[in-house]
Amino acid sequence: MTITRRATIGTALAATTAVAWPGFKARAAGKKSLTIGVCSDFSGVYSDIGGKTSVACVQQAIEDFGASAKGYDIKVIQGDHQNKPDVGAGLARQWFDNGVDMLIDVPNSAVGLAIANVAVAKNKTYINSNSATSLLTGKKCNADTIHWTYDTYMLSHSTGGAMVASGGKTWFFITANYAFGQLLRDQTAAVVRAAGGKVLGDAAYPFPQTTDFSSFLLQAQSSGAQVLGLANAGKDTVNSIKQAHQFGITQSGMKIAGLLIYINDVHGMGLEIAQGLVLTESFYWNLNDRTRAFTKRVLPKTPNNYPSMAQAGCYSGTLHFLKAVDVIGVPAASDGAQVVTQMKKMPTDDDAFGKCYIREDGRFMCPSFLFRVKKPGESSIPWDYYNLLHTTPAEQTFAPLATEGCPLVKA
Amino acid sequence: MLGFSRTQSVALAVLVLVVIAAPFLLYPIVVMQVMCYAIFAMGTNLLMGSVGLLSLGQAAYFGLGGYVAGYLVQSVGLTPELGIIAGGAAGALLGTGFGWLAIRRQDIYFAMVTLALAQIVYFAAVQATGFTGGENGIQGIARGDLFGHLPLKSDHAMYVVVAVIFLAGVVFVHRIVNSPFGQVVKAVRDNEPRMISLGYRTDAYKGMIFVLAALFAGVAGATKAMVMGIVTLSDVGATTSGLVVLMVLLGGIGTIFGPIVGAAIVVAMQYYLAPFGAWVIVIQGAIFMVCVLVFRRGIIGEVAFRLRTPL
Amino acid sequence: MVMIFGKPLPLLFGQLLLGIINGSFYAMLSMGLAIIFGLLRIINFAHGAMFMVGAFVTWALLTYLHIGYWGALICAPVIVGIFGIALERLFIRRIYKLDILYGLLLTFGIAQVLQGLATNYFGVSGVSYDPPASLARVVNLGFMYLPVYRGFVVIAAILICFCTWFVIEKTRLGALLRAATENPSLVQAFGVNVPRLIALTFGGGVALAALAGVLAAPLYSVNPDMGSDLIDTVFAVVVIGGMGSIGGAVLTGFGLGVIEGFTDVFYPPGSAVVVFVVMAIVLLARPAGLFGKTA
């Protein structure tokens, strides 16, 4: 059994070298040190809308907070959840057990929900900026979780509502078959039905291994629906829209409603294909002077990928977390509920989202913007892709408080 | 001691010491995962070692055990020990059905039938969202109280439970292999026609080993579900089936302690090499190749060969 | 709208066509597997990885050497074929005398290494590759719009399958191969270099996988998992068709593609699993597969 022992020692060594970040002991030594974990998709379908650019935004927030001038020593670590809930939950558990104070980003709603369970069990601050599911502030809300940036309610009501209002009454959905896609489809279908429209069919595809959407597109086409609702995100959306063009979906007059499209996806498709798409974001880099100023600061860290709303949310969320910790003191930073309570007490203010606030169910309340993607000729500078159609104030953007069954909200 | 040879007794004593010391030196969650996968690998090793059958679908029983335990504990409110028993029973039951189908085939066809059946289970898990949670999995399973009284929320309490199941599994496997039943099974592996002519119903023996392997897989999956609080499609997928074969191969086919060492190395690799991304897969693949090309006895098999004693 | 079995005709035809396109890949891949199994008695689990490598080589040829699609159709299979021969010489030949299951485990390891390396260099979502300009159009077939490239894939696949079948069944080289499969020592005695024949066969088999990879590159996104997503199905095809039966593999490949397509119309969630259900049934009823010779 000597080899067993050697293997065990090897494991112990690996544990101390590969996982080298300061835990509570380092903090006891007197420095104001914090650890932030960015849990994201670094290589998969959501790597452009999360991943490295999210890390860059977190680092920008630490800079803008003036961490070093204020005597803070803040470590940022990152981990790839591979779009697997078990991997994400295991990573979060390991991080929290080893002294990570706050976990942020997390695209993919299935992983996002799994980590919310771990965060509340370990009482650690969890800012989700990149999952869409509105369950995070509904039935699955908890005292350690804040949902930043956007959710399925906002997408279904804003983009879905706009499509219905412009005459799209019959819908066919192509759905990424997991927490996010299912909820986005259901909420959009409710919006369609409430406006007197009809849902003619739905094709739910296995996520994340599907890259060929032709079979679902054929079903959509033969349904005769006016609108093709894409309840998916990231590269899946890009692929489905590209293939919809190949199979003549748009030529035959069917409209595409991309329910969740980020600016990075528009960039990936190119304006030739993306032009005319209607979409909703709560941040756009070219919206006003403050958003442009923020983008200018962060771009050197992520030169080939402009920040999307979710990545900007990582900036905004980290900045607000640091402000809150600055008030309650570093020793309290490991008590998630206390940090989150403080964050809810203070209004937020940053260059990306302006002045906003956090509601008691953990919902970050910011306005949303309905955009139309520009034609190739209209775009003058790099990544200048959107025309603003409509602004929805925060209170109408998100579901009214206490209607979604969050146990934190007292009726 | 319990029918263990002297060397085996020493090895067992060392194993017990390692199990006792590990949670103080290492991250307990990882050690618990090692033990869960070790139970899984010990069962698979019964099949590969004792009867010489390579199954490429063991994850079906592992995943089912996890889902059943997770569902019963979370949605029905069963206590964790009942959940684990139910998970094991579910694995064994599925193993009875599939085993009945699969053991009539040999070699490569056996491997392919088990693969096909496991794929069917996987897709059933994708579809049965009410039971499995589909792509989301069953999330946030609370560990609950053992026998309804002892809370398992702390990792150390859970550790004791997992360690007891694991060590019981080691002793149980050893008892099976060295029982008269185990001797017959070995004889079936070495010369099946002869055993048939001696009047043994060889298919029944193979079937029983198949069911035992599925039982171990079910218990392992259920225990892991309790430890991690989450069961997902990864647990029932082909990757997990491949992983357990790697553990057995690396540790040593047909040894008592090999699968444990194999599980420890593979899990440690996955956990601590995770920051290096897909290199884990590359290394795993390379280990497969090295094991097959030059190291077919595996680690413990090699040690046992050098010491000229079974381990 | 015309309906058959309660389904609109265009949908039925459309899915049938998609089924044939998928079937083309099943046929090409399972044919290579069957050839390799026939002579080497190796279950090549790395076949999917070779398909994936073929697609990435296609992309690399364009990106680094500016060799376009038509050039890649020749170059990529040659490159991957040589790579396959190297693998056979270095690793696979060492295990011919062992239990057949070790071959499966070894090639599984090779597949993992290749897939892991590709993931490291290209990320999980991989890269995209556009079809050649001359085939990038869409035609309206009346019942559906068909991207011309997809039609081209079907025709190319049928041609490739026919040529391979012809070489093996009707030429001297094929006769040699078949003879070596039956009785390698006798063929050796006739002065044929059997080890070289085996290496070339393996190279040829994986070159076919790479050729399928070139055809697939413009169709699907070129990603590290594209082979492993397909390989289980392809194995099922080979097993159903009968291990080592080339014609059986091709027919079963197209047949299962069509069955999948129809399942997609009538019970979409079942399309991913129907192949395995068929395989389980066939194996239990006819252990040697539909076209297998030995009982």
Main features:
heterotrimer; B: 311 residues; mainly alpha; two-stranded antiparallel ribbon; globular; C: 295 residues; 3% strand
Report what the structure shows.
The complex is a heterotrimer of chains A (411), B (311) and C (295). Chain A has 411 residues and is α/β, with parallel strands linked by helices. Chain A has two domains: 32-150 and 287-365, Response regulator (Rossmann fold); 153-281 and 368-397, Rossmann fold (3-Layer(aba) Sandwich). Chain A is 42% helix and 19% strand. Chain A has 15 helices and 15 strands. In chain A, the strands form four sheets. In chain A, strands 2-1-3-4-5 form a five-stranded parallel sheet, sandwiched between helices. In chain A, strands 7-6-8-9 form a four-stranded parallel sheet, sandwiched between helices. Chain B is mainly alpha-helical and 311 residues long. Chain B has one domain (6-236). Chain B has helices at residues 6-25, 28-50, 59-76, 80-102, 107-127, 129-132, 155-178, 180-190, 192-197, 202-228, 238-251, 258-272, 279-294, 298-307; strands at residues 145-146, 150-151. Chain B has a two-stranded antiparallel ribbon. In chain B, helix 3 (59-76) crosses helix 10 (202-228), helix 8 crosses helix 10 and helix 11 packs across helix 12. The radius of gyration of chain B is 19 Å and the shape is globular. With 295 residues, chain C is mainly α. Chain C has one domain. Helix content of chain C is 71%, strand content 3%. Chain C has helices at residues 9-40, 47-65, 69-90, 100-122, 148-170, 172-182, 184-189, 194-216, 226-241, 246-266, 274-285, and strands spanning 3-4, 7-8, 138-140, 145-147. In chain C, the strands form two sheets. Chain C has a two-stranded antiparallel sheet with strand order 1-2. A two-stranded antiparallel sheet of chain C has the order 3-4. In chain C, a hairpin with a 2-residue loop joins strand 1 (3-4) and strand 2 (7-8). The chains are: A alpha/beta (411), B mainly alpha (311), C mainly alpha (295). At the A-B interface, helix 1, helix 4 and helix 5 of A face helix 1, helix 12 and helix 14 of B.
